């Protein structure tokens, strides 16, 4: 559930960059002679994460909001194909990628 949908995958990557940046800054405390380098590197990771979050926010406003046919919850589709953020169902904007309707056989 954590990595469903393209937007959530990018957000998860940005969150990992924040943790990585804080971890790199923490390593700076363990090596006092290298502290300025580790702090600068950690700040670069955190600032990169802020840039990614900003970019994802812009992508999120431009993505197509839809209601998932599987779970009925609102989600956003980025690109032609994406996953539902809630149930991981494959969603498509392109009609040729739409799942085929199953024909029900009549009961005898």
Describe the protein's topology.
Elements lengths: L5 H25 L4 H28 L1 E4 L6 E4 L3 E3 L6 E3 L16
Antiparallel strand pairs: 1-2, 3-4
Helix pairs in contact: 1-2
Tally of DSSP helical segments: 2
Provide the gyration radius in Å.
21 Å
Let me know the average pLDDT: 84
How much of the polypeptide forms β-strand, as a percent range? Answer: 5-15%
Flag low-confidence runs: none
Helix content bin:
40-55%
How many structural domains?
2
Shape: elongated
| N-end to C-end Cα span | 42 Å
The main sheet orders its strands as 1-2
How is the biggest beta sheet arranged? 2 strands, antiparallel
Which structural class do you get from the secondary structure elements? alpha+beta
Number of DSSP strand runs? 4
Return the string of H and E elements: HHEEEE
Transmembrane segments: 12-31, 37-56
Pfam families: DUF2614 (PF11023)
Keywords: Cell membrane, Membrane, Transmembrane, Transmembrane helix
Protein name: Zinc-ribbon containing domain-containing protein
């Amino acid at each position: 559930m954590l990595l469903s949908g393209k937007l959530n995958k990018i957000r998860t990557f940005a969150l990992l960059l924040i943790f990585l940046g804080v971890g790199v800054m923490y390593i700076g405390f363990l090596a006092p002679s290298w502290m300025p380098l580790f702090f600068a590197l950690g700040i670069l990771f955190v600032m990169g994460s802020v840039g990614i979050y900003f970019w994802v926010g812009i992508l999120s406003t431009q993505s197509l909001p839809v209601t998932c046919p599987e779970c009925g919850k609102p989600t956003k589709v980025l690109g032609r194909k994406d996953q539902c953020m809630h149930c991981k169902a494959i969603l498509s904007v392109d009609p040729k990628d739409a799942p085929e309707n199953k024909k029900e056989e009549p009961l005898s």
